[in-house]
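Suppose a colleague, Dr. K., hands you the sequence of a protein chain of 67 amino acids and asks what its three-dimensional shape might be. Before reaching for any lab equipment, you can write down a predicted structure in token form. Begin with the sequence itself:
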Amino acid sequence: MTALARPRDGRMLGGVCAALARRFGTSAGTMRVIFLVSCLLPGPQFLLYLALWMLLPEERSSTSTAW
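The predicted structure, expressed as tokens, is then:
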């Protein structure tokens, strides 16, 4: 299982759908479609997206140098 973190590549807005797609083993496009369809239903989907955008850490760079 991969850790839940917003990736640096493959994201459109905040990377929330891309992070969830990596976590659940599906494509980011599929996760975006699921999110858009879920927005047609009543509920706090957009607020949840904003909360995840703020709370999920950004993926660490693989090329970072350690001192």
